[in-house]
Design brief:
heterodimer, A: 4-stranded antiparallel beta sheet, B: mainly beta, 6-stranded mixed beta sheet, 5-stranded antiparallel beta sheet
Chain lengths: ~120, ~110
């Protein structure tokens, strides 16, 4: 496997279910990100982890719970979601160095989430 | 408020008809501008990183340029396989990347 991988690629869940999204990066990066992408909206940053520590949390509802057990893996735990949470959830990684002006984010293929 | 605006929202071109996509930005301290290509239902695919005004990058039929307030993605003699949404993002802080809403490009054979 190379780059950034995400599983599952598609997920349908009811409002009372609990599920988890998984992301893995094989780039040796230090920072990992969760984004939400909805139709005709810019990517919304949800969480950022650097070396397993959360460094950004952009007012995301508590029904989304991130976990970063190590610098290569990132999870997004979901519970009691709402239909408006249906979207494409993207994971990304970057070197995470402030001095590096060209620190590029690399994205995974995304998980298409549908909440019924 | 820091923001990124992309135009046009959608663009239809005939195969071989060159054009440009625009990304204008207002950020207090630019720390990199990025172009991505996104196909339907997939994650953004990295194309270019630009940092300094006057910088240019090229890849096949694509060329990205940067000024102090905007960036252009020039597409020369496009082919149907270039059809996708093109996203622009600027990096403002170590972990803060602001994305535009994208330009949906359709190239007709």
């Amino acid at each position: 496997e190379t780059g950034v991988t995400q599983t599952p690629r598609h997920l349908v869940m009811g409002m009372t279910n609990k599920k988890s999204l998984k992301c893995e990066q094989h780039l040796g990066h230090n920072a990992m990100y969760w984004y939400k992408q909805s139709a005709k909206k810019p990517l919304e940053l949800m969480f950022v982890y650097s070396l397993e520590e959360r460094v950004e949390n952009n007012s995301v509802p508590s029904r989304f719970s991130p976990e970063c057990p190590n610098s290569s893996h990132l999870f997004l735990h979901l519970h009691t979601l709402q239909p408006e949470d249906s979207a494409l959830y993207l994971c990304a990684s970057s070197l995470g160095r402030s001095q590096l002006s060209t620190d590029t984010q690399y994205f995974g293929p995304g998980t298409r989430l549908t909440v019924l | 408020e820091d923001q990124v605006t992309q135009s046009p929202e959608a663009l239809r071109l005939q195969e071989g008809e060159s054009s440009s996509l625009n990304c204008s930005y207002t950020v207090s301290g630019l720390r990199g501008l990025f172009w991505y290509r996104q196909d339907p239902g997939k994650g953004p695919e990295f194309l270019f990183t630009l940092y300094s005004a006057g910088e240019e990058k090229e890849k096949e039929r694509l060329k990205a340029t940067l000024t102090k307030k905007e960036s252009f993605l020039h597409i020369t003699a496009p082919k149907p396989e270039d059809s996708a949404t093109y996203l622009c993002a600027v990096r403002e802080g170590t972990y803060k990347y602001i994305f535009g809403t994208g330009t949906r490009l359709k190239v007709l054979a």
